[in-house]
Amino acid sequence: MAGAYYNYAVAIRAFDNFYGIFGSSTFYIHPILKMVSIILPTYNEAPNIIELIEELFKNVAGPLEIIVVDDDSPDETWRLVELYNNPNVKLIRRMELRGLATAIYAGIKESKGDIIGWMDADMCMPASNLKTMLLRLSECDIAIGSRYVKGGGDIRRFYRVFFSRAINWFAGLLLGFDIKDYDSGFALFKRHVFDKVTFPPGGYGDYFIELIFKSKNANFKIEEVPYVFKRRTKGKSKTTVNVFHYIRLGFSYILKIIALKFFRERR
Which domain holds residue 186? Predict the structure, then answer.
């Protein structure tokens, strides 16, 4: 049965690519028709959160669970989620604990989906990319939204792109160039991955480097799906401080990469 649905989805995708008719259509068949859990870590994302939730419902046609993990945002992002009042949207409001990786980990523990994913809540990562990422999961265990494979891109400020590309080059040098976007933070995982790979519940973007590297070592198949990372248009970035902030953050990433290469734990 799953194979039949997958073939149907591939046929629609081919028709879409050839004729360019269904580019904005919400009619998309999940390849294996299993529940998808999407985790949205948030802090002061009131201008974006409801729009993103609705985009997710438009772009994932199968059973969908959205888990918003909010770090008690002063702009009351959490309240907007409460007022949205949808049984398929779960809110975790954290009053004390903070941080990106810990928020994602909290969402994973609460998730019920056979497929678990996460993305930024600032509308810089397109929810429409999930269509292709879900299809790719019929052929792999992990689908990464990638800025640095053919067809992808990053249109943020020059220094942010420079530091990201430099970190990915260094990660490729030590951990392998088979992955182009080690600090993507936009991905879908089959749940069974977490039976063998422990999620690293700490850090900022470096958690993703560790997670992907350990997933490779566990012999899970990973594919990268191109997307263009957009500039934020509403709200304020949590990482836009100054160049010195990026140097300090980049240094922590470098230390993580070195540790993974030379002092890594297998699980």
Answer: 34-263
Is 127 contained in some domain? yes
8-state DSSP, 129: G
For 169, phi then psi, to 5°, come to -65, -45
Task: Tell me: pLDDT of 43 over 90.
Answer: yes
Cα distance between residue 14 and residue 72, in whole Å: 44
Extract the tokens encoding 243.
Answer: 């160049």
Decide: 94 and 106 in contact? Cβ < 8 Å: yes
Query: How many domains, in total, are found in the chain?
Result: 1
Q: What is the pLDDT of residue 101?
A: 95
Please report whether residue 29 resides in a domain.
no
Question: Each residue of 70-80: b (16+ CB within 10 Å) or e?
Answer: bbebebebbeb
pTM equals 0.84
For residue 39, give the 3-state DSSP assignment.
strand
Task: Let me know if residue 9 belongs to a domain.
Answer: no
Give, for 190, the enclosing helix (H) or strand (E). strand 187-190
Instruction: Please give the residue that has the higher pLDDT: either 204 or 119.
Output: 119
